[in-house]
Structure formats: C-alpha cells, structure tokens
Known about the structure:
Elements: E1 3-6, H1 22-60, H2 66-93, E2 101-103, H3 105-115, H4 117-122, E3 126-130, E4 138-140, H5 142-159, E5 166-174, E6 178-185, H6 192-195, H7 213-223, E7 227-232, E8 238-245
Parallel strand pairs: 1-3, 3-5
Antiparallel strand pairs: 2-4, 5-6, 6-8, 7-8
Helix pairs in contact: 1-2, 3-5, 5-7
Amino acid sequence: MGKIKDLKDSPEVIINPPSENDIIDDYRISLTERIVRNIAHEIRNPLTNVMLGLEQLKNEFPTENEASEVYFSIIKRNCERINDLITNLVNAAKPSELLKNPQSINHLLEEVIQISKEKIEKSNIVLKKQFEEALPNANVDPDKIKEVFKNILDNAFRAMDGKKGELELKTQYLDDQFIIISIKDNGIGILPEDLKKIFDPFFRVKSSGTGLGLTLAQNIITNHKGNIKAVSNPNDGTTFTITLKI
Length: 246
C-alpha cells in the first residue's frame, strides 16, 4: 500500500516570489479568449454543416452495406470529438468566475489527497507531506484551487506510471505575504523543449489525457493573481510550484 510521511523536520524550501505582472496577465488572458472564440466560431460553422450533411446523406441514401455504416460512424464520431475539443478549448481559455472566500490551503490539499487515496494506494505511491502549520488562510475559490491540485496530481500519476512512485507535497509561508505550494514527483520528467509548452492547450507529454488540464490550472492561478511554474529534467521528475499572494 502507499505510504504517507510527514516532513515537518525537513529543511525549509526557499522559493523566490514572482514579480507582479497583473496588467500583462489580464491582457493576455483577454486576448487569448477572444482569439480562441473566433477560431472556435470559424471551425464550428463548417463542422456543423458537415454533421448536418452527413445525417441528410444517411436519410436520403439508406444502405444496408456494413462498410458504409462503419464509415458513417467514424465520420460522426470524429466530428463529435472535434466539437468536444473546441468546447474544452474555449472553457480553458476563458477567465473562470471565482467564488472567493478565506480557505486553508493545507485543508484543500488534504481533500484532494483523500480523493486520490485509492489511486495512491493501488499504485504503491509513497506520499510525503510538509505542510506549514502556521499557514494563514488564503482568499481563493476552493473548488477551482482543488481542480488545479487535482490536475497536477493527475499529471504526476501518469508520469510515475510503472515506477516506484514518490510524491512530495509542501506548503510554505514566505515574507508574510506569499503562500508557496510545491508538488514534486519522481516520474519520467519532461524534456527542456517540451517544458516550454506544457501549459499550451492540447499539448501532451504522454498520449493519455486531454492536454488541457495544465492550461486550465494556469488560467485559474493567473485569475487568482498568482503564479505557477514547473521545473523538470528527463528521468528526474517534475516539480510544480504555485505562488499565491495573501
């Protein structure tokens, strides 16, 4: 079974807080959303015509040919997949509405750990925790922040698949104004050229997943006026660091 260790006595992790670029971040998010919506509109119009034409073709030229039915099914299924991908992309690009209230980040992490408990135990992952007890509450949207944690953990689980997994979760209060959350795995790691693209929509290091989890995570953290970064090396695991300002 997976093991959970407390690292209270481990050396303190010191991470420099990011510089604030709120205006630039807000503009980037707004511009990205407009571009994505325009592209989605341009794709959906012909896609809708293809799907309507396909249904019309089936109705006007019914066939008992098994091969034709297979081809019709393939076309329809892939049209629906494209439509779903567009929907996911639009949702990932738009700023999320936040329902903020004071929350314990440690408690939110514990909730996500509990949700992932079965996966941790089945995969024999050793979970190590170092949560700062004096961590103040942060004014965040709890559901959105838990979604960020879950998306990062899902990526960690995929990266550690087939290995003796070790997962380290840490929280720290820095300079009386920043909460630092660190999530580290010992998975396959990420190539330097891929690391630059991990927050890009639909980019995937492995074939599984939608490629939108980290995009959504970045948008949520940016919308909280926070920062999310990743450090990784091939075969040496990945560390995601989230910074939230009190």
